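User: Hi! Is it possible to get a structure for several chains at once, not just one? Here's what I have:
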Amino acid sequence: MNEKLLYIETFGCQMNVNDSERIVTMLADIGYRSTTAPSNADMILLNTCSVRGGAEEKVYRRLANLKVFKKSNKHLIVGVGGCVAQQEGDELLRKLPWLDLVFGTHNLHLLPDMVIAAEHGERRCETSFIDIDQRLDLFPSVKGATRISSFVTVMQGCDNFCSYCIVPYVRGREISRRSTEILEEIRQLADRGVQEVVLLGQNVNSYGLKTQGEPSFAELVRQVAGIDGIQRIRFTTSHPKDMSDELIACFRDVPKLCSQVQLPAQSGSNAVLNRMNRGYTREQYLEKICALKSVRPGIVITGDMIVGFPGESEDDFKQTLSLMEEVRYADLFYFAYSPRPGTKAAELAEEISREEKQQRLERLQDLQRRITMETYSAYLGSVQRVLVEGEGKRPGQVSGKVENGRTVNFPGERTLVGRLVVVRIVKVFQNSLLGEPV
Ligand code: SAH
Ligand code: SF4
Ligand code: F3S
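Assistant: Yes, the chains can be modeled jointly so their relative placement is included. Here is the combined structure:
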């Protein structure tokens, strides 16, 4: 088989990152090897995200840039997948007559056939939803290069319909993967040297709730912890309303579960949370945070926040800032609200002006930068165990994560990759720590 080169560009969340890994694995079976340059590729794929406004335009702009490669290589195949592909479908093929294929978020398994068809000049678009429990079994596991940390998809889709969010429309209904399959995949990863797994889904903590005979997410975590060779377990993302007492108890009882939890609040104001259809109040959210901190002192909390949701008053916004002070997020992802077509919030009046959103975003950022620096300054001089994942920022450095997920760079040889190394923290930056081996 003639070897061909695949260039893939990934936007959006870890779901897409994981899907791209699966795509690479699948297409290896039909002779494609990954390349990091679009210029010498035989196929270019964009795995797209549509969570915020402007995403579609960005994809069209990127495609317009990539078109030049069609001129230099007339056999080049160009395709679009992911959430924008799901949303736009046929429209993409219609607007761009030179585009070869479009695949939606439920159709990864069709890709090898679509690529072979494209090699014979056939243009295809596959975006139908497959809402059966077995759908996730259609997705291949990731093979190939051994890494230290690996994503493992446990569920997909979302049934929460937060009023601002397009994900339920582009990812479809929530589906849990069978636990036997998940555990088997993790055993195989452990056999290949993987020491850390990140359990992945739009809303992992509702895992199993709608599927007969499957364990709860908390029980799944305990089962994963029983697998030899797995040293660290993380998961993302959680919805606060599904953060059960049973899952909180795992942070007390399961040492392999890392001291880190991503628990997006989205707003600190009850009025806004209600209009967002989040299903919890500020007080209920804080109760969960308090419970997590009490069973696992020092646990790092991270989250997402939206500013400028329709009707958000100055007072609502101040409540977001005060929630941040109370929770003390180690890290926060924050976004200016952008209306998404088809969502409930897009119909709400009282839009906040662009300037106001920008100002609030800056105020929020200033506060978060301060909290992040204060949080990590407390690590200065402390001794931490780092699971080394690869080369560091500078030559002669390696890089890894401390137990709570923060990246540490420190002087060391590549031979340390895959080892747990004890380091002392000597410097704190906004996004990482600097260490020295003890
Ligand atoms: N499933 C995850 C994340 C979904 S999208 C969860 O529920 O936590 C990632 C983040 O994008 C969201 O947490 C939210 O903060 C942000 N987001 C989603 N829709 C948005 C919109 N219309 N405008 C601005 N930010 C948005
Ligand atoms: Fe979107 Fe809400 Fe589902 Fe997260 S839980 S993906 S924010 S609808
Ligand atoms: Fe974006 Fe789709 Fe993820 S919209 S955030 S890539 S689920």
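The mean pLDDT is 94. The first strand starts at residue 4 and ends at 10.

User: Great, thank you!
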